[in-house]
Amino acid sequence: MNILNKSALGATILGALIALVPSVARAADDPKPDTKTEAERAQLLEKERPDGWKVTLNFGATGAFNHSSNVVGTDNGSTFQLGGLIDLLGDLIDGLHEWDNSFTVQHAETKTPQIDRFVKSLDNLDLKSTYLYHFEALPQVGPFARFKLNTQILNSYAIRPEAVTVSRQSRNGDITTADISPAQEIALTRGFEPLVLRETAGFFANPMETKRITIKTKLGMGAQEIIVRNGYVVDDNKATPILELRQLDDANELGPEAEVAMNGLLIKDLLSWKLGANAFYPIVSDAHIAGRSAGERINLDLGAGLSLNIVKWLSLDYVLTAKRVPLVLNEFQVQNGLLLTASIGIL
Predict the structure, then answer these.
(1) CA distances from 297 to 62, 150, 288, 327 (A)
(2) What is the model's pTM?
(3) What structural domains and CATH numbers belong to the chain?
């Protein structure tokens, strides 16, 4: 299954998940009235969250093959896709202190009859570290501080199966054009560009933490830095035959950030789900955002997933992500895929 260009399927699954949340929440309710005191709830939470490190290493792999010969409307030839995932999670609990860490690398290469070579179709690196302090009287609430990093590892290129004229617009507005041969690489960005950093501090609240469903929220102030070199991004006007590229620029922004994350079980020990949404709205920015509406300024990061447990250490996972960073590209960048994931508990 192609991990890209399945946004319609992703949107359908996302909608189904959203529709399921209320029913799952009702299923999670205890039919008996909850008479526990806050102290008793805190003791139960402490038992469910024992002190110490919990480290898990996940490996995911995806692959697809298709061959066509004399099929109407399809080019003759073979389509290959190979991809992988490395996900390292490290969580530390020490009394009322919690430190969550994750490091994820995703990569995929695709070869089609139109372009007879493997081309990078997915390249993503995410790093996240979050410190949380749980109030003793109410452990579901407390302050937090977080650092996030997102980038790509390898150089990026645009490749077109047909000859095309490329227009490059530099930061100062200068425009240059060049004619590019079919399947020729059009250089865009170098490795680790753009580098998007986010630091956030505020308060968290976990209004629901049961075996069936968990809801976690965060609200705070965030600072975002976008660091580039001389790279370009495809910012094409579909109404013209020219392929337009725009040069990226550094930016520093400050504003409120809100996040909600939900996960739960549809079928115990078999099928689980997750949903997440993060929004960052810059109220201070050194970039050229004058004239942009509120909707055009907001940064969004959306995600959804389904996980089918085959055995204890092996699962089949569908993951959908859609992110929008207007100062990089003022459109949603959608990626989704089906992964066979193996988990190894280290600690």
Answers:
(1) 35, 19, 11, 8
(2) 0.83
(3) 7-345 (2.40.128)
